User: What shape does this take?
Amino acid sequence: MAISLSAMLERQNFLSGQNHPFNVWWLLVISCSLILVGLGLRDPWPADEPRFALIAKDMVDSGQWFFPMRGGELYPDKPPIFMWSIAVFYWLLGSLKVAFLLPSALASIATVLLVYDIGRRLWSAPVGWYAGLLLLASLQFTLQAKTAQIDALVCCFITIGCYSLLRFLLLGDKWFWYFVAWFFMGLGIITKGVGFLPLLMLLPYTALRISKQEYTSISARPWSWHWLFGPLVMLGAICLWFLPMLYWVDVQHNPLFDAYRDNILFRQTVTRYADSWHHVKPFWYYLTSVIPIFWLPLSLCIPWLLKPWWTAIKAKDGRIIIILSWIVLLLLFFSISPGKRGVYILPALPMLALICAPYLRQLISSKALNWLIWAVVSILSLGLLVFGIGGQLALAFASKLGAKYEIAPWAFLITLGALGMLGCIFVALAKKRKFQPFCSWLLFIPLLWIGYSTWGYQLLNEVKTPKNVFVSMAELVPDDSQLALVNFSEQFILFSPYPVTHFGYHTPVKPQVQAAWRWQKDKPNGVILLDATTTTGCFNMQNALPVGLAHRVNWVLLTYNSRRLSCPEPEIAVSEFSSSPSVTQ
Assistant: This one.
């Protein structure tokens, strides 16, 4: 009995209602199974998750939702849309461990369904189903779906924009979809600035229309004044947040709020793009360091897709031309900016899966591609196995990498690598039964995400949080102690069982230490938590109490007995920010 991938996908007529093999409900079940598994099993992990979770918790606890605050200090780096979404779920469910991951998870499930539906409309139900499945099988997409960062939500908004424009431009649907696209572009902008990216689709569409040649699937919609209302709709969506923000900043008469407005409108948008001050990478960074790994398995398929794409372009297939052009323009847009992160190009992945899906049967018929995918899965599994064994044996290379990336549960890596290798061996041996090597990826991905989201969450949670530091502190200081933090990250506020005071996230370390000395002067029960390598003349570091390693830093406590007689006043003004105990639930 042949059980090739194409046969498996085509023969299961019983899998859907109405005996149809490509029912959206089965895609929804698969999406939820991969994305929602493990929900509530872990706490927020650095770098971004504790910050957003802390802000959302502060919104609910304080009742002040409009301006994001972290530990009493304004957070001016991002608009509040994503933090609001976490806060809403926290308010509804009462559990931050569940709430902080839900916005990304639900947004990613919606993105899969959008890709399915537009694929179904532009090509066929099987193509839409394949597109959704390919998107779920992509490493970067599912990783972001399981991460509480803004990118999964903004990717969903951008995909809605692309979905709506494709319906309008290619299918000739109502003007309603044109305006929906602009509205969600506006929401994307007030979520993370780059929500306007679907607008780039209008460039190839306009070029095709101006060429006056006949292209398939291009709606010959006449030019009219309706087109001009799109930017107004986007502006209206932006003003839902923008105008109230300007008003409330104006009535505060507070320079801190003025700085919040200026930072979020200018420094975090135009300046960040044109003259980025961190994550500076070369122009080719995405092509060499992101796409080959994080877009697996689609990145392996691209060489085999060039010919069918070129054939479609020569045949004047407007679907492929517009979507492929948009992907290239998006990559070019982010490559021009000096500041680059891998997650920036996530919105291109749904559209890439969409234009890969029509050629999936052709791809899986290639023996070379099949065995290339099998080889990649084998190498990944072998790498996990070797790395896990190396860590278990405390080999230098594994120990250094483990310390750098905070990886400690070697048994989990050994198990995952061993199961991956067994899966590859099974696929290779089952070749006689027409079990194509391509299926090794479809076996590896559920194994990876289900294992990572259950056992992996539980093993990594202690490594990724500072809980061990606070456990050590509980053995050294009374329960009614007050805590001051110096040169720290948001997770220390989020997990602290003590009232916390800090002296600003962006304050230099030396003034922070001096301010902490001044803070402790009248608080004999106050303790200061800081990096063990901190150099200061205000405290006798030999009297510091070690409390453990967290986030690649050895932390120590400074009690009242560690103080020196005098400490100079900070050369700059340092504000104190205090918050109540904020242990996650």
Notes: Confidence is low (pLDDT under 50) at residues 1-19.
